[in-house]
Design a protein that fits this description.
Shape: globular
Order of helices and strands: EHEHEHEHEHEHHHH
Strand content: 5-15%
Low-confidence stretches: 208-212
Number of strands: 6
Radius of gyration: 17 Å
Largest sheet: 6 strands, parallel
CATH superfamily of the largest domain: Isochorismatase-like
CATH architecture of the largest domain: 3-Layer(aba) Sandwich
CATH class of the largest domain: Alpha Beta
Number of helices: 9
Number of domains: 2
CATH topology of the largest domain: Rossmann fold
Mean pLDDT: 92
Oligomer: single chain
Amino acid sequence: MPRKHLSADDSAFVLIDYAVGFANLYRSHSVAQNINSAVAVAKIAQIYGVPLVVTNGPDESPSGPLYPPLAEVLGDRPTVVREGAFDGFDEEPFAKAVEATGRRRLVLAGLMTEGCVLHTALTAVGQGYEVFVVVDACAGETEETHQTAVQRMIQAGVVPTTWLSLTSEYQRTWANQATQPGFAALIHDHAPAFAMQGALTFSITKFANVSA
């Protein structure tokens, strides 16, 4: 079967429980890594105009509100507030928000990998969605719990990806000039090692010259 690339026309993003309180629980990734990846994923949705569903518990719950850097990027985008269900689809407002995107390919990222991300992803697969999980934008209590959850999702048919791989799949080529500035800024801000290697400047210059 020919590969069908993810695109802004056929996919939607779901960000799950990026709450400040969870930063005290996970150890599979550092807090800095998780915030960096979460913000990158939100920016990808914005750069490519992909529908985005954001969900979290009530701000006054023990887990608390969204990460401030993520909330800043999201601006006034509404959050679907869940009242305690680990599987997002167990609560009608979330299920309706996902359905309202009109997309059958879902890109999930969030906290915790072995909890709400896992259970929401498994139900999405069961409901016929094609599901991708951004594994480096998720985190678990330990490396073992994170990896075990990822393996369980893969066995159920979920496709693992990373935020840089994801944005590369949307961008496809440096020659896509409409989104090239956003793509370049994303790499600069969230993958500094890649940017410092000089590949970014070289690629932008090369395609700018070709297009001139």
